[in-house]
Write a structure and sequence with these properties.
mainly alpha; 2% strand; two-stranded antiparallel sheet; 2 domains
């Protein structure tokens, strides 16, 4: 019997629910080491979003486990195979690429690691054009940076790439006007698209 036949829908549901519950608890404990409050004087604490997102995930997994124990969900009675061989291959690639992403974040930082992860993942799993994959892989980390570092003032791991962001921080917290900063954001977001368009048009 292959491994795909051993992994039934019933086993998969309870295994994933328990793993996610344990991960939620671990994330809540780790997030609680930082400030998880949010007020006008101190803004949002570094642990606020991770803590309450983990709490929400924990509640959902507990409900899933309860329904499984009480046999209230269709999945808790389903002994059919959870995935076929083809799907198992895609899941294995996804898990491995996510593990590599997490390890890379500790060295390269989240933004550059995310570029490589998105480029690989979209190239492997989708039939999108190279130009679309390039634009998406570069623009997404930029938007992530603007959202967390600029709007929420929550720094994310940057690893060895941290010195590259010093000029950006100087601009963000310098004496520039709001209009200049908005122009900078727009140009930063649109620049990858423009470069990819020019490259695909003039370089054959």
């Amino acid at each position: 019997m292959s491994i795909t036949n051993k992994i039934t829908v019933k086993r998969a549901e309870i295994a994933v629910a328990v793993i996610l519950a344990l991960c939620s608890i671990a994330l809540m404990i780790k997030s609680a080491e930082n400030r998880i409050t949010w007020n006008a004087e101190e803004n949002m604490g570094a642990g606020f979003l991770p803590f309450y997102l983990s709490l929400g995930m924990l509640i959902c997994t507990i409900l899933t486990i309860i329904k499984f124990v009480l046999k209230r969900s269709p999945q808790s009675k389903d002994d059919s195979p959870f995935i076929d061989a083809v799907a198992f291959k895609f899941i294995a690639v996804t898990i491995i690429s996510l593990v590599v992403l997490v390890l890379a974040i500790g060295y390269l930082g989240i933004y550059f690691s995310l570029i490589f992860f998105l480029a690989f993942y979209l190239r492997y799993f989708s039939e999108k054009r190279i130009s679309f994959i390039t634009i998406f892989a570069i623009t997404t980390p930029i938007l992530t940076f603007l959202f967390f570092e600029w709007m929420l003032k929550i720094p994310l791991p940057q690893g060895v790439s941290e010195p590259l962001f010093y000029p950006v921080y100087d601009f963000m917290y310098g004496g520039f006007s709001f209009a200049v900063k908005m122009i900078f954001i727009i140009l930063t977001v649109l620049l990858p698209t423009a470069l990819v368009f020019l490259t695909s048009r003039f370089i054959k």
